[in-house]
Amino acid sequence: MRISLITACLLLAAHTAMAAVPATVYKSPTCGCCQEYVSYLEKQGYTVTAINSDDMDGVKKRFGSTSLASCHTTLIGGYTIEGHVPVAAISKLLKDKPKIRGIAVPGMPANSPGMGPEVKGTLKVYELASNIDPTKPTAPKLFSVE
Predict the structure, then answer these.
(1) What local confidence, expressed as pLDDT, does residue 93 receive?
(2) Which of 1, 13, 91, 100 shows its CA 20 to 30 Å from the CA of 139?
(3) CA–CA separation, 122 vs 119, rounded Å?
(4) Which helix (H) or strand (E) is 94 found in, with range?
């Protein structure tokens, strides 16, 4: 009985910790797929604050994601998450804590969260470099394939 109680407490603590991960999503007020991505994050246990913006270019410039832009920009754990990034890649980012600005899925791929059914193993997620110099463009570096 005592072991079951301890196990139940640990599971409850783990679930509570996971549910407490805050995410701020900057999105256009008229974009349906952005709202779908907000719903996706909430279903995955994130606490989402959605902020409508009529200046998404300014948001991307502020958070360093213009080079790999999509329709919305999310902040999680001090990182910029640009576009329809799967939670698996976000979890890897938060676990590994690399010294990068964040990660991105540029554009609006049909097989990404919020855009349609995910097709595992087909979605390329790229790094957002921490020191972006617009005078020295470089090819994006692959972070993961989800």
Answers:
(1) 98
(2) 91
(3) 6
(4) helix 87-96
| Residue pLDDT, tens place only, 124-136 | 999 998 765 656 6
Contact yes or no for 83/71 (Cβ under 8 A): yes
Structural contact between residues 83 and 26, judged by C-beta atoms closer than 8 angstroms: no
Short-list 57, 58, 49, 52, CA closest to 23: 49
CA-derived radius of gyration, the chain: 17
> What is the spatial distance between Cα 75 and Cα 100, in angstroms, rounded to a whole number?
13
pLDDT digits (tens, 9 = 90+) for 61-111: 999 999 999 999 999 999 999 999 999 999 999 999 999 999 999 999 998
138 pLDDT band, cuts 50/70/90, is confident
Is the overall model pTM greater than 0.70, yes or no? Answer: yes
Q: Which amino acid appears at position 73 of this protein?
A: T
Residues in contact with 26: Cβ distance below 8 Å, sequence separation at least 6, in sequence order: 51, 53, 56, 59, 72, 73, 74, 75
- Domains annotated for the chain, with CATH where assigned, are 22-145 (3.40.30.10)
Give the Cα separation of 113 and 136 in Å (integer).
32
**How is residue 30 annotated by DSSP?**
T
At 44, the amino acid letter reads Q
